[in-house]
Amino acid sequence: MTSPAAPAAHRRLAPGRLVLATHNAGKLREVSALLAPYGLEVVSAGSLGLPEPAETEESFLGNAGIKALAAARATGLPALADDSGFSVAALDGAPGVRTADWAMQPDGSRDYAMAMAKVAALAAPHADRRAWFTCALVLAWPDGHTEGFEGKVEGSWVHPPRGERGFGYDPMFLPAGGIETFGEMAPEAKHAISHRARAFALLAAACLPG
């Protein structure tokens, strides 16, 4: 009888340049802050003029993989991509992977105040107020190798939105046990419990330089 094969070790990222595969200023700010202690030189896909690839997958990890691989192959550098979204139980998990699409305007800009109002209007008839944020992080190399990690934070939705901090749907999300929305929290308080921080902790332990 043979023993099952041991899982392959994670690939470690060497110090140097890393492309952050985003055009979202809020994500760039948050992920750059998380990466700061690791001595990596971070450059965003937006600053390099890279196009935003179509996100055609039905999962956060799938869409993060699309973005990370596109940036790695375009630049010849390792790339990190985030795909995250806001889900509401009463809406069967929507907007979910379509979180950004719900905010899309005809001119290509995003109006999150409008998107939050839409979520509230659709969910208000239901007693269930549960909501959650999910974040998938995928690290990709130009040779096509990827490492993926996912984090989640549970809570409830509130309306009207509260707070001017954060970005996206943050002002309408109250984490479980909390009294401030993500839009009201100081950045360091949000980073301590957020879906992005939880996914990043897994990625850092497995792949980032020690």
Automatic annotation (TrEMBL):
The UniProt record lists the keyword Cell membrane: no
Record Pfam families: Ham1p_like
Required co-factors: Mg(2+)
SUPFAM superfamilies from the UniProt entry: ITPase-like
Cross-referenced PANTHER family: INOSINE TRIPHOSPHATE PYROPHOSPHATASE, INOSINE TRIPHOSPHATE PYROPHOSPHATASE/HAM1 PROTEIN
Subunit structure: Homodimer.
Name recorded for this polypeptide: dITP/XTP pyrophosphatase
